[in-house]
Amino acid sequence: MPKALGSKGLLELYAPYFPLLSSTAKAFVASGRNGAEPGIELDAFLQGMFLEDIEVPIELLDITEAEVRGGWDPDLTERTLGWIAKHREKNAQRSR
Q1: Which pLDDT score, from 0 to 100, does residue 5 have?
Q2: Residues in contact with 14: Cβ distance below 8 Å, sequence separation at least 6, in sequence order
Q3: What highest taxon heads this organism's lineage (predicted)?
């Protein structure tokens, strides 16, 4: 089983996608970052990327889901898993 990345390591994997986000989505992501809330920052990344139709690779979704299931902010777990599921569904539609 791979070693857990932790929130900081996981967010580093999303950093290359930050420039692709709109200024509004960037502001939401930054609010989590500025508030030192990695769970909110990741949730904002997933939400912004979904709404702006930015594809998240399956491998990154797998890593993200494992991290979230492995111990995440209990208040955000279901919400974040919901965004992951939406990305998986959109990826499946793209591959049809």
Answers
A1: 77
A2: 42, 45, 60
A3: Bacteria
Q: In percent, how much of the chain has pLDDT > 70?
A: 96
Q: How many helices (H) and strands (E) does the chain have?
A: 5, 0
Question: Quick one: tokens of 53?
Answer: 């139709």
CA dist 36 to 8, 12, 33, 40, 52, Å? 11, 14, 5, 9, 24
Domain boundaries, the chain: 6-94
Is the pTM here over 0.90, yes or no?
no
The structure tokens listed for 64 are: 């993200």
Give mean pLDDT, residues 45-50.
96
Cα gap 60→47, rounded to integer Å:
15
Q: Which H, E and C letters describe 49-79, residue by residue?
A: HHHCCCCCCHHHHHHHHHHHHCCCCCCCHHH
